[in-house]
Amino acid sequence: MQQLINQVKKILKAKEVDLVIGWGKGSLPFSATPVFIETEEDADKLIFDQTCRNNLTSYLTKDKRRLTKAYEKIGIIVKGCDSRSVVLYAVENQIKREDVVLIGVPCQGVFEKKKIAKLAEGKEVLEYKINGDNIILNGRDFESKYPLKDVLCDSCLTCQYPDAPEYDFFIGTPRKEVSIPEAYKIVEDFEKKSAEERWNYIKEEYSKCIRCYACRNVCPSCYCPECFVDQNDPQWIGKTPEVTDSIIFHLIRNLHIAGRCVDCGACVSACPVDLDLRVMSKKVEKEIKERFDYLAGIDINEKPAMATYCENEKQDFIMG
Amino acid sequence: MVKIKKTRLKDFIDFVQQEYDVFAPTEVGKKTAFKKIDSAFEIIHDIVNTDRSPKEVFFPQSEVLFEYGKDGLKTPERKEKPIAVWGLRHCDTSSLTMLNKVFSDAHQMPDKDMFKDPYWKEKYDNSLIFNQACNTPLSTCFCHWFGRGPFDKTSSDIFVVDVDDVFLLEGISEKGKAFLAKYEKAEQATKEDEAKITELKRKAESFLAEKTDISELFEKIGKLWDEPIWEEISGKCVNCGACTFVCSTCHCFDVSDEGKKGKGKRIRLWDSCMFQLFTKEASGHNPRGISTQRVRQRFMHKYNYFMDNYGVHLCTGCGRCVQVCPVNLDVRELIKKVLDYKIS
Ligand code: SF4
Ligand code: SF4
Ligand code: SF4
Ligand code: SF4
Predict the structure, then answer these.
(1) Which residue has the CA at smallest separation from atom 1 of ligand 2?
(2) Residues in chain B with pLDDT values less than 50
(3) Which of A306, B57, B112, B188 is most buried, by the most CB atoms less than 10 A from its CB?
């Protein structure tokens, strides 16, 4: 941690950046909170641990519309998935790579609050301790121990790039790509279901959606200044949480983020009703990988899968 | 005060159901919400706050106001029984009294000019409200900041305390007292039972986190409209509507027509001041075009405008927004920042 703070102080002092976006301690035991650091003194607020869930890069694009102040050069602390978002922005001409300074941090996976709440079965967890491969959860009148992997985000459990493939500084030594044999297991299980079962699952899941759009708003890849659901002239989609409209919202969003989703899991964590958003985004990721051998946010010189065309691409979706 | 054995709750709920549709905390997907139940077995007891707030019982996320067609307008007729809600906490019942002010109660306007929302009134006015004491408040609960507490009994018909293997029930309003009197199978509570309440109350209050004195909040926040504090506060907000949708007191709505040729319906549905579209005008101009303005609006409404109009803060301290906010914008910290802020 101190190493991270020192690094940030150093680049602020050298005026290499005028803002650093990182995480600070949050008010709940499992949530860090985004902090915007402009001075060396403020850099002491920075932390990095498994509560640092947010993909902060979404502030790089959305920020332009949010903050009144213009920054020349922004430093940002990135986990593996976050750095992939920055690559995505660069590839999609949203930012210039040289306008941001990436500080990579070694990621051990981040906590999924909802899994923790579930394990605690309604009791409130007030503190935790990490003990080797286990996590010890403490509440007012209980203490229980679970394997650490049971409280990590699903995205982290299948993450191939826990350490930023793209960075300017790295705290420690970055690991290379990790091989995950069962990266698409949830998709394969889903594909094994009959069409009817799949449809029922989608209907049941999406009927819970309250259309708060937290998933979209935390999504680094959803940066349209005006989302199609917010357009009202013409209005593309009904505004009630009626399931058919919710399905349209989610399927269109899935198509819009096809080949662009970096599987940071931000949407899954943000959803207040705990929808299974990942099975569809992973399905699309797998399709793009198989058809075009493309994974979002890895190669800064490669054109995005949905923005190029090659004649020898598989066209069976048209030709049957 | 009477008592009902927990093992006999089903019998009591069956009795309530003879007259009312009973709504109670139950599982919806992987989360909890107040929904209509068929039997007492569906009730979840071991939670404090439901994930989704109870406002949806009386103010559903989408509600048909009327249907239209070539032969005119048709207002939907409510055919269901009146509503009873079991398992509300004191923050929940106080949120309903706040919403009641908006939809049908006293305002500074003289009553005769006051529009009363028939959709809300029909449901709320005939309801039976059970308010259950919170034996174990959460660390995110801050009802006590507003001068309320986990064992408050006001704003309900029947007050319920979970004590060991029984529920103690006390009629608060005339309606509640009369209802309880009709249930003959309940036993009278003893002095010992009542003594246990005092002990549970003391314990519950000891669980509450430190209290902040908010007596200056209304005036202070009212002076901050033009201050840079809103940029600092709103910087991390991603303007999702999660906090407003789970909030038990947020009540802004939109009206939308859904129709095909010749017929359709007009629907009222939840909206959120966090959304860009909320204030976008037909000309394309948006008076709250940036996030900072929207965040300011949400909290000004809660801690200033509503107080100005109705004499109470539009926040119960239920902490639901604290739990769902994806960027941990904690309203308690916001209040403290406002109180500590030095005006430039
Ligand atoms: S869903 Fe589509 S239109 Fe909406 S923000 Fe995401 S990419 Fe843009
Ligand atoms: S965050 Fe969840 S409830 Fe909100 S719009 Fe997305 S899927 Fe629906
Ligand atoms: S603002 Fe937060 S604490 Fe206050 S009533 Fe709404 S959800 Fe509850
Ligand atoms: S939940 Fe948090 S991020 Fe979303 S609108 Fe509310 S305060 Fe902003």
Answers:
(1) A271
(2) none
(3) B57
